[in-house]
């Protein structure tokens, strides 16, 4: 992998809570800080596109994400995204040819101790380097095709459809 392009859209991974999980805002993307702290040995660039909870991402937002990724020459792309509508955005990104795109997020904010953010990011980075071209979702230690996965909100995990 020559360079990793990271596109951020917000979601829980970047949330900052001001009280007991009710009043929040989407903060600065956390992934660059996480990767620098971990001392990764590959080049990466971060393009922050949105700062939204994925429940509020629109079709127009998805098209912006798709067009931004398609316009870049980088072949390896990681997208951080909220988990509630990650599958829908993944379906839109399937129209991009010639790239390996892996989407990931977190079920608790990266700023929280014990967050799944670092694990999911690590899994996604391994996936983006080793999988053939296409679009994938890396969550809960597994890799999914967006066409065959859903978020089970009650169990707070992704599972096959």
Automatic annotation (TrEMBL):
<feature type="domain" description="L-asparaginase N-terminal">
    <location>
        <begin position="4"/>
        <end position="155"/>
    </location>
</feature>
<keyword id="KW-0378">Hydrolase</keyword>
<dbReference type="InterPro" id="IPR037152">
    <property type="entry name" value="L-asparaginase_N_sf"/>
</dbReference>
<dbReference type="InterPro" id="IPR036152">
    <property type="entry name" value="Asp/glu_Ase-like_sf"/>
</dbReference>
<dbReference type="Pfam" id="PF00710">
    <property type="entry name" value="Asparaginase"/>
</dbReference>
<dbReference type="InterPro" id="IPR006034">
    <property type="entry name" value="Asparaginase/glutaminase-like"/>
</dbReference>
<dbReference type="InterPro" id="IPR027474">
    <property type="entry name" value="L-asparaginase_N"/>
</dbReference>
<protein>
    <submittedName>
        <fullName>Asparaginase domain-containing protein</fullName>
        <ecNumber>3.5.1.1</ecNumber>
    </submittedName>
</protein>
<dbReference type="GO" id="GO:0004067">
    <property type="term" value="F:asparaginase activity"/>
</dbReference>
């Amino acid at each position: 992998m020559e360079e990793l392009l990271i596109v951020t859209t917000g979601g829980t991974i970047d949330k900052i809570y001001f009280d007991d999980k009710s009043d929040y805002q989407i903060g600065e993307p956390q992934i660059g800080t996480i990767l620098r702290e971990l001392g990764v040995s590959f080049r990466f660039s971060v393009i922050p596109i949105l700062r939204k909870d994925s429940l509020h991402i629109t079709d127009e937002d998805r098209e912006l994400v798709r067009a931004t990724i398609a316009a870049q020459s980088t072949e390896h792309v990681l997208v951080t995204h909220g988990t509630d509508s990650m599958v829908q955005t993944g379906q839109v990104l399937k129209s991009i040819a010639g790239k390996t795109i892996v989407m990931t997020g977190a079920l608790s904010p990266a700023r929280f101790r014990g967050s799944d953010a670092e694990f999911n990011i690590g899994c996604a980075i391994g996936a983006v380097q080793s999988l053939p071209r296409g679009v994938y979702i890396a969550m809960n230690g597994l890799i999914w095709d967006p066409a065959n996965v859903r978020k089970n909100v009650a169990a707070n995990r992704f599972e096959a459809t």
